[in-house]
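G., before I forget:
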Amino acid sequence: MRGKWLFGGIVGGAVASLALAAGDSVLSAAENNTPQKTIQRVDAQLRTEFQDVSVKVAPPADDATYLRRVWLDLVGQPPAPKAILAFVHDTAANKRRRLVDTLLADERFGNNWAQYWTDVIFYRRSEERALIGARAATEYLAKRFNDNDSWRDIAASFVTAEGDVREDGATAVIMAQAGRPEETVSELTRIFNGIQIQCAQCHDHPTDRWKREQFHHLAAFFPRVAVRPSRMGPQRTFLVVANNFPAFRRPNANNRFAGTLEHNMPDLNAPSAPGELMQPVFFVTGEKVKIGTDDAFRRSKLAQWMTSDKNPWFANAFVNRVWSELVGEGFYEPVDDIGPDRECSSAATLAILADSFVASDHNVKNLYRTIMATEAYGRASGPRRTPIETPFAANCSQPLRDGQLYASLFNALGVSDPATAGGRPGAGFRRQRGPRVLFKNVFGFDPSQRRDEVGGSIPQALTLMNSSQINRAIASREGTVSQLLHNTDDDQEAIVVLYLRVLARRPSKREIETCLAYRAESPSRREAFQDMLWSLINTAEFKYRR
Amino acid sequence: MSHQHQNTGRTGSHPANLARRRFLQTIGAGGLAGGIVNWPDLMALKAEELRKKGMACIILWMQGAPSQFETFSPKPGHENGGETKAISTAASGIQISENLPQVAKVMDRLCVIRSMSSKEGSHPRATFLMHTGYVPTASVKYPEIGAHIAQQLGDSASELPSFVRIGRSRINAKGGFLGVDYNPYVVDRAGGIPDNAEPATSTKRYRRRLALRDSLETHYAEHGGKQEVAKHRKLYRKSSQMVMSPQMSAFDLSQEPEHIRKQYGDSQFGADCLLARRLVEAGVPAIEISVGNWDTHFDNFSRTSELCGQIDQPFAALIRDLEARGMLDKTLVVWTGEFGRTPRVNARGGRDHYPRAYNAVLAGGGVQGGQVIGKTDASGESVQDRPVGVSDFLRTICHSLKIDADIEHMSGIGRPIRVVDGGEPVMEAFG
């Protein structure tokens, strides 16, 4: 699927504009149930907050900026020139909403967000070999997002997973921590409830309410889970297994192969002593199962409680992440450190969205549709606010994730991806040295990080400036420059198309002048346009979604 | 970045401090005399002086875990020692394995620790532990020692990176919560100028491109992207400076005289060691070279002997060359792997993973050569004297380089983390 658009940007654009024309018919009746009320309440709430002080609220984004933003946010790639022109010239009043609906129905939506969550899980791996499961995780998540399965069911499956990590993507969180109970429960609560309880592993947290005992009560849901290497099949792999009858092992021993029957909290003063036997208790709600309970029941209860409506942090965590990705700033930051003792920048807005998310039975596409219809999402982008300024008065620029940037690069260069693995689910995280992996090594980042802390690095600049592959693509016979020069003799027209292709917008008057002047000073037309393309892919604007 | 990496300790280079240092460099003594420098500035100045001492560290990382018996801790008298013979060295009374005859000749400059001990027997976890002093966790991204060295000793005005890794490696800690500025600059192999570090066009055209690029940033800067463009311009200034820098010729080994190249030998590791020395000369404070394939679960004796053959001459040449240039006192050379190998030889003639007792070597950087620290029992199965844990080991490196192991950095979630947690430097190493 994704391979196709990479090979031909123009073709992809034409397909997209057809899909745009088809519009609403793509959607099922259930998906069309737009929660208009929630959108209005969010807008009204934020407007109230802007009234309190003199806030400079950004105007709505122009069509081209909005279109590129939605394409990158939903399907992880920029629009092609034809799609831009079609959208800009579309006079329909509801064209923005229709665009969102169309792209939500596109399979690349699932793949884009599956890559995001795969990164969330695997950037925190404490076991390198876990990467063999990354591809299965992306494929699994892509399917579930595209099927618009309830986030509750998706999240629960990561708690209860069993099986071959190459086959069953839901094993990813357990595999990434090699099944160690403390690390696994820390990650499950971080990812799905946004709560960092692992600090309580060794001591009561100074700024949090969670106690050390509560952490170990939580770890007590996982002692019977083990991650076992397997060489039975054609490839080496790992199996996540439940072991309700493990051979005798020292409590809290490395859990990789066998697991233990129950979890003991180590005695900090006597680390070699067996420690205190812990009952499985879920810290948020206090719900518990008995010691001796078998693994399947234990974990099914934990999955149920972690995702239940009684636990507000489940919906809050997901809404906070999606809002943060789309609007550019989370209600809580970093997105995986929320909870009752953290500051929320607009608690009322989050509550409106979270309530609506729960009421929709955790309908993921509905949440995207809702947030993307708010004024906050649709505003022009502005600088990140200072801590004393009111949040959400502009949409903040976000650095592109590696998958988005990789797609943007091939789109801009107008050549096909040498690694056909380019858009394949899970690409970039396997241990090999294809271009996609190298690209991820240089441009990837942990998506749970605050985006203003994701710094550009020298190797990134060196790659985009000097890499022989990119420079060959700029000079290639099939690439963007050759296409431009072949299609038109008019330099100004070529500059406009180049901008549409690379930055998905028309150049300003001044930019046209700058480029024409550069053209005039250059030894040849070809060289001038190669340099323009090189310059544009090396701008900040190319690397950010505005 | 500033949130991710706040310094709660005394010295160090919080970005604000870095800025202050540059400020201090420009205001010079006049500013100092004018009394505008406050206490934190003085501390930053102290860090600056520290850096000027020109300390550097070269880590020779033996990925896969070399056998202690076949390298620096032979046990010829015991069945666990296998067929490996011991040879005398330049340090009287110290014998090492016959696999390292050239290294034996510089033994009087080396300090062997034969009582290294840890609990991690899995390659990735132990590799992470030896580099960071911590076991990997999901919640805190610990930086590796090279990043700490770069952060404390690196010169922000240098056009070269402050942490260079040569060779492929399985370590993925990198700059951790210190940020991408302290990630290693990775060179797959020594030789010429590294990938992507040279312009793809003529220098003239490259300069024109850079100028056009800079002017095309303006639109976004004026339409909501002011901060992003400012950071990006800074990054491109720094990166293009590096590309154009005459200092980059440090990477070009063909500039080294033939007789010196000969000393290091023909192997890749020889070239890597020579590059490390050139980088230290150019002011790079942290360099790590990785050599793989030490995981000798079978045919341990022939394979370890072959691997030793690859490192023997270059290792010795590096020590001699540093000494001849008067650089050894300020350059700490560390040789180690992630753990040791089982004393008992397995049925396939191999040795398996053994973190309980292994060895490491230090030289230069104030280390007293010609000595052995710690010992194991006759069988090599357990440490009998002076156990050295990973924290002790890393603290010894910090002590040699005069960097502060007790600085606390804020991890991403607001937990203060020391460079090294616990442990004591092995002071005997410094004589």
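The two ends of chain B are 41 Å apart (CA to CA). Confidence is low (pLDDT under 50) at residues 1-37 of chain B.

More on Monday.
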